[in-house]
Write a structure and sequence with these properties.
The structure is a single chain. By secondary structure, the chain is of the alpha+beta class. It has a domain of 83 residues: Gamma-B Crystallin, domain 1 (Sandwich), CATH 2.60.20.10. The chain is built from one helix and seven strands; from the N terminus they run αβββββββ. The strands form two sheets. Strands 2-1-3-6 form a four-stranded antiparallel sheet, with no helix packed on it. Strands 5-4-7 form a three-stranded antiparallel sheet, with no helix packed on it. A hairpin with a 3-residue loop joins strand 1 and strand 2. The radius of gyration is 21 Å and the shape is globular. 27% of the residues are buried. This is Beta/Gamma crystallin. Keywords: Repeat, Signal. It comes from Nonomuraea wenchangensis.
């Protein structure tokens, strides 16, 4: 009898764990944050959705980036996703876009969220 109760309790506990895991909320997406100055300083602009023209929100004035999203973002030199582009990986922080290997400071005019989490053919900001 005690063994039957223990087995029933174990099955019940396992079922509750399975239900909890199934109903756990997905990790919330954070914003892509663009900063006017290097070192994550100055005015900042946050994006949670694709934007083809950020001229009113920091366009051509961005010097550092923090991607707080669980997805990758692609930043473009010109509006409507044209010109040079770079992919910002989930969780990635870029201290100074003016660095020699990128030369992308004060050059971002549009941003695209990659809901599939990939960079596709876009180059990534990688340190040498």
């Amino acid at each position: 009898m005690h063994r039957t109760i223990r087995i029933a309790a174990a099955i019940s506990a396992a079922a509750m764990v399975a239900v909890s895991a199934a109903t756990a909320p997905a990790q919330a997406a954070g914003p892509l944050v663009l900063f006017q100055d290097s070192g994550f300083a100055g005015t900042s602009w946050s994006f949670t959705a694709t934007n083809g023209n950020i001229s009113g929100s920091g366009g051509d004035r961005v010097s550092s980036i923090v991607n707080q999203d669980v997805n990758a973002w692609v930043v473009y030199q010109h509006d409507t996703y044209r010109g040079r582009s770079y992919c910002v990986l989930p969780g990635q922080s870029l201290y100074d876009l003016h660095e020699q290997q990128w030369q992308f400071g004060d050059a971002i005019s549009s941003v695209r969220r990659r809901p599939d989490g990939t960079c596709h053919d876009n180059p990534m900001f990688l340190s040498p």
